[in-house]
Amino acid sequence: MYDIIIIGAGPAGMTAAIYARRAAKSVLVLEATGYGGQIINTPDIENYPVEAHISGFDFATKVYEQAQALGAEFVFEKAVGIEDSGAEKTVITTKNRYTGRAVILATGSENRKLGLENEDALVGRGVSYCATCDGAFYRKKTVAVVGGGNTALEDALYLSDLAETVYLIHRRDQFRGEESTVARLKERENIRFVYNSTVTKLNAEKKLQSIEVTNQDGTVSTIEVNGLFIAVGRIPENQNFASVMDLDEAGYAVAAENCRTKTPGIYVAGDNRVKDVRQLVTATADGAVAATEAIRYIGTLK
Fold it and tell me: Which terminal Cβ of the chain has fewer Cβ within 10 Å, N or C?
């Protein structure tokens, strides 16, 4: 029996573990893959207090080591469900069952796909969802980035230091990302902007050779590229836990700033909950709030 079970070892989940352990609560952190979440793919964090520049990997490693040093237990198994028995919650993984008094869901989100034919088959052969992971394979080559948010803008900026040419394709005529990043992109001579357009076809034999791009006016063009980096958003990983919390139409967990779900003793923290701002600093803030609420809840149990 754990006091608090945390599902997800991203910034929100690991911060929750730190706060819970500092309150002398027993903590189990369940993670399907590796610690860190999507932040490990960020080469340079510039907007987090204290550190002016730190890589996402280094940031995540520091938080992980801090949580471990405080006594949080990490088990790398995928959680697939929760059973609520009031004062006890059972988290079901692909291998085991774990019982706790409170649960914090910090599952984050997964890459949203374009839904094109051969998209999955071409992953690793020209299609990627992680510029910092795969960008080095495209030095002096031609690549395209799809998307209009901060991730797409940062990917294009990162790739412009490696590739010969970077096409930035967005379905609108304005980007959703930060204006400061857009301004930096416009200073790069090797970045080509393709507005009001979507990628509608992937042309490949053994690997990606070109992409078909369709403009809003119906014009179709072909761009020869060696790599396509897809950054069109993410899907919250809440489907397995819909029985214990309400989800909005996009699949995000409905919870206010107190991170409470509809089920007493179950909380949600990070990018998988409904919120206006999804940044590293708000993810860690959620972790702190969720842990504090869970600690208070445990105090009410007899």
Answer: C
155-213, pLDDT tens digit by residue?
999 999 999 999 999 999 999 999 999 999 999 999 999 999 999 999 999 999 999 99
Q: Is 134 a catalytic residue?
A: yes
Residue corresponding to tokens 């909005």 = 248
Q: What is the dihedral of CA 257, 258, 263, 268, to 10 degrees?
A: 70
β-pairing, 27-30 with 2-7?
Answer: parallel
CATH topology of domain 127-230: FAD/NAD(P)-binding domain (3.50.50)
Res. 43: pLDDT tops 80: no
Superfamily classification of domain 2-111+234-300: FAD/NAD(P)-binding domain (3.50.50.60)
All structural domains of the chain with their residue ranges: 2-111+234-300, 127-230
133 is catalytic: yes
User: Which is catalytic among the residues 44, 58, 133, 161?
Assistant: 133
Residue 46 has pLDDT above 90, yes or no: no
130 is catalytic: yes
Angle between helices 11-22 and 56-69 (to 10 degrees): 20
Residue in 3, 44, 58, 130 annotated catalytic: 130
